[in-house]
Amino acid sequence: MTAVVGVPASPNRRPLFALLTANAISGFGNEMAALAIPWFVLQTTGNPADVGLTAFTMLVPYIIATFAGGSLVDRLGFRRMSVVADIASGVTVALIPLLHVTTGLNLATILALVFLGTLLDAPGIAARQSMIPEIAETARLPLERANSVFESVLQFKNFLGPLAAGILIATTSASFVLTVNALTFAVSAMLIGVGVPLIRAIEAEKASGVRAAVGRTLAGLRFIRDDTVLLGLALMSMLANMRIAPLFLVIMPVYADQIFDGPVGLGVALSAFGLAALAGAIAYGAVARQVPRRIWYIATTAASVAGFCVLVALPGIAGATFAMALVGVTSGAGRPFTATIRQERTPLAVRGRVFGANLALIELASPLGVLVAGWLLATIDLRFTIGLFAAAGLAQTAAITVLPPFREERLSRRPVQMQNSAYNAPASTRTQTGSEDGS
Fold it and tell me: Which residues form the domain of 347?
């Protein structure tokens, strides 16, 4: 039986540093792989249709795993799930260049490796997010600031990863970049396995099998349904994702073609989003505790909508870059905000399945938004499409302003304390310990 373990009397930030470093390294590897794998396929087969099929194969398992992954996180534990996810990604990525230079590769094998490598990405993300409250407590760091740092790392690798991959592919080869990717996952797994302590609920999840996994997944969805604040945040995040996902994948490429008459402006605008998102995440950690939560939520949502309103005027590169920066800074400031509230309101014992279910709901909104945007662009025009998405954002802002779940007293109430947990603290401070499988 796993027992409660005392938290160190003095701040211990080594686990936080290990978690953030591992997340940065593995995230950097994922960003590089997202560019290197399609490029490798294009160079290997020469068929753009194969690239599209590969991209589709990279998305499908991620969406599938967001539903089942949360159950797996609670079953295996946060640390073990993170390590397993990194190892799976590293092995499958390494096999692509290895098989290419030995036995040879066909498209079916590449797709199978991509599918398997992506399948555990979502559970790995959920596991890392689930660790933050206890690790922040051990580091004596406010939860808001810990989430701010976590999000800042994510935004930095989102900006740097594709740039580094592009440079490395141009100067070496896609095979070399994939080999580097495999090494990044190995380093991340080692950092998590060695530097991050065991964090697990006292009542360890022992049930296994398909029925138990489905039950845990449904329990995560029911938990969100029964907590009006979490349900409201999930629905608002879905609506936000329905606007922002097509902005990158559909609207801005068409915008660049029609308004910029070239890809350079698109690159500038998207880079502005990434840098502004990093700034927003840092700002959240610096000032969030001094600003009422309701005001913060309304302001970040409204500012994001303002970016869409600027784009309705169809400005040139300078105006579009400013608009994307507005959307970016509010995205960077909003993600750690919602993560903090989820962590406060979710007991450790069900955190994996709840976070997994929440991520699944949000990700499911992206394809719908992309389909709607594509249809509107094809049947009407660019300005109307952006205007409709801006109007949807205004309605969302109004809903946040008036609906009861987003009142200050609801958002600020912390019903879940960090209790009922087993924390494998340093030997000098712990009282009792247990193994990760609950024995």
Answer: 226-412
